[in-house]
Design goal:
heterodimer; A: alpha+beta; 7 helices; 14 strands; globular; disordered C terminus; B: alpha+beta; 6-stranded mixed sheet; 4-stranded parallel sheet; 29% helix; 28% strand
């Protein structure tokens, strides 16, 4: 039985989860596997048929991963790098990447165990939603959102009383743009904001506030959980920025593959990945820290 | 009002535009080669998007569209955005066009009107085995499939199914070929470097089904070629005719269209010799015009009626009488 952590070697969050899972569960092996290891596996067998899906992967170190033996997956896979296919002609590497991506999506979709960050054809891990779609979803989940305007022409569609930003990345407000066409050409604009930022980490139905009071967190909790559910993800960081009067919080972005350091969300992730597995006694100690 | 997007001379788009004109349905074309003259604004306040697109010296509120048929190609592939023999494209114009495409696609993803089809929904075709897992949920059968880089396992798969084909696992187009005994003996070791998709060969009749909302257009393709799309390369004849599907299969096709959130799709079926229907894949951006030309089925008209909001339901099976 194996708990599988699919992540790149530098992914500290994945390695924290792996370490905690090893402390927590006595039975399943915990294996961290990178996209390169998966792509270079000497044996891949993925059968899709009337009897369902069966997969058998043997990694370079001899580890075997069979569908039925995997009890939980924490998926943080990046796209398979072109360097995985150095034996290919350079013009064929893009094709090889697309083929491996297609295989990994099918494999991860077929697993019946708990998978945190299930793959979609758009993205091996994390939601493929655009910043605009996240905002609409956040509004529908009951969160106040930071109004935005995207325009190809500031002359035709002037952004009144709005701030120009370089992008709508998850990191709140980006650096103001000072390019030559900044006053007439395309632009992204947001309403005025306050000076404080905060976030909430969602794991399943539990939340952990970052720079928020317990009362503020209570007000935002349901909206954040609903947003994560609507996005089909169990693990999400929801970012907020204060209103100009500093009285309320507005949704300004989401991270579908967040990094976390605190033991609370880490141990919640480990519990979720373990699913029905019997926890080792160490779990009580972890629980006490929460 | 219907919004058509893409290059208007491209056949599927051209036929849909012609159908809108013939039916006197109000429409406008976002010509991808003219986007340098267009403008777009998208506002998001709360949970409802609003905005406008400026084309042909006129402003169209995004909310005014009853439906969108998009055949947009990659912005980088528009001739105006590519280097010519004499000059490089204007970088500012290219960047502006890219921004317009990004914002427009963002809107298509959240637009309340009927969209044929949203990019997110079209992605299921990027992994054929993933799509196969969805197809079987509708009750349609899929061929037994093996994706492997183990030559011995592939040879065993071939022995158990007698005839096996291979094709791409992703949406990258490939010609379906049979894994012959010669290939199996001599060339199969090449799969070591990349797992490859093999499928049992299903002997029978190729059928392409176009689903447009609840309407079904089925075309039977008579040929001896393994992959009829490329039959001409081997000088093999292809004949096509409109047919009616059994009711339960038509319903399964509608269910598949809904499951994949693809109101317009091209479903590749095969009716095996014993009468069983197998589904191979669902094309999310079908070149329906090829089949319309050969069978006379009014697919473009159905697209226009669906986007105009007058023919969302019906459930009738159309066949040429």
């Amino acid at each position: 039985m194996t708990i599988l952590i699919l992540a790149e070697p530098h992914d500290a969050t994945a390695h924290r989860v792996a370490a905690l899972a090893r402390q927590t569960y006595s039975t399943p092996a915990v294996r961290v596997v990178s996209s390169l290891e998966i792509a270079r596996a000497p044996r891949w067998s993925h059968e899709v048929g009337a009897d369902g899906v069966a997969t058998h992967v043997r990694l370079v170190d001899g580890t075997t991963l069979r569908s039925g033996d995997i009890v939980g997956v924490f998926n943080r896979l990046w796209p398979v790098p072109a360097s995985a296919f150095t034996s290919f002609d350079p013009t064929d590497r893009e094709y090889a990447q697309a083929e491996m991506h297609a295989l990994l999506v099918s494999w991860l979709a077929s697993l019946t165990c708990p998978v945190i960050n299930r793959a979609s054809p758009h993205s091996l891990c994390g939601s493929p939603w655009s910043h605009v779609k996240w905002r609409i979803a956040a509004g529908r989940a009951g969160l106040e959102t930071l109004p935005i305007r995207l325009t190809t022409s500031q002359r035709r569609y002037p952004p009144r009383n709005m701030m120009r930003v370089a992008d709508l990345g998850s990191a709140v407000i980006a650096t103001p743009d000072s390019s030559p066409l900044s006053s007439t050409g395309p632009g992204i604009f947001v309403d005025p904001v306050g000076e404080r930022t905060a976030s909430i980490v969602v794991v399943g139905n539990s939340v952990w506030p970052e720079s928020l009071s317990p009362h503020e967190c209570d007000l935002l909790r349901d909206g954040c959980c609903r947003l994560a559910t609507d996005a089909g993800t169990e693990f999400l960081r929801v970012r907020f920025i204060s209103t100009p009067d500093e009285q309320r919080w507005m949704f300004c972005g989401a991270e579908a593959v967040p990094d976390v350091w605190e033991v609370g969300p880490l141990s919640a992730l480990v519990e979720m990945i373990g699913g029905a597995e019997s926890p080792h006694l160490v779990q009580d100690e972890v629980g006490a820290e929460r | 009002m219907i919004l058509f997007c893409g290059i208007p001379t491209e056949t599927p788009l051209a036929k849909a535009i012609a159908a809108a004109e013939a039916l006197s349905v109000e429409h406008v074309v976002l010509n991808q080669r003219h986007v340098h003259f267009d403008d777009l604004v998208l506002d998001v306040r709360g949970s409802e998007p609003t905005g406008s697109i400026w084309m042909w010296e006129r402003e169209y509120p995004l909310e005014s569209f009853s439906g969108v048929y998009t055949r947009l190609i990659d912005n980088r592939d528009i001739p105006e955005n590519m280097p010519s023999a004499h000059s490089m494209p204007d970088a500012t114009r290219v960047a502006r066009a890219a921004f317009l495409h990004t914002v427009f696609n963002d809107w298509l993803e959240i637009a309340e009107c009927t969209v044929l089809n949203r990019t997110s929904a079209m992605a299921s075709n990027a992994s054929k085995p993933f799509q196969a897992q969805l197809i079987v949920q509708t009750g349609l059968r899929t061929p037994e499939t093996l994706i492997s880089n183990d030559p011995d396992e592939i040879r065993a798969f071939r022995r158990s199914h007698r005839r096996v084909i291979y094709k791409s696992t992703s949406s990258v187009r490939s010609i379906v070929r049979e894994l012959t005994a010669e290939l199996s003996d001599e060339s199969l070791d090449r799969v070591h470097d990349l797992p490859t998709q093999f499928q049992e060969f299903v002997d029978g009749q190729n059928i392409r089904v176009h689903v447009v909302g609840d309407s079904i257009f089925a075309s039977e393709v008579a040929t001896t070629a393994i992959d009829y799309r490329y039959a001409h390369q081997d000088d093999i004849d292809v004949a096509m005719s409109a047919i009616e599907l059994p009711y339960h299969v038509a319903d399964q096709c509608r269910a598949l269209s809904r499951l994949l959130d693809l109101p317009l799709c091209g479903i590749d079926l095969k009716r095996a010799i014993d009468g069983t229907f197998f589904c191979f894949e669902v094309n999310p951006s079908p070149a329906y015009s090829y089949y319309q030309e050969h069978t006379g089925q009014p697919i473009a008209e159905a697209i226009v009626r669906l986007l105009d909001g007058v023919a969302t339901a019906g459930g009738q099976t159309w066949s040429k009488s």
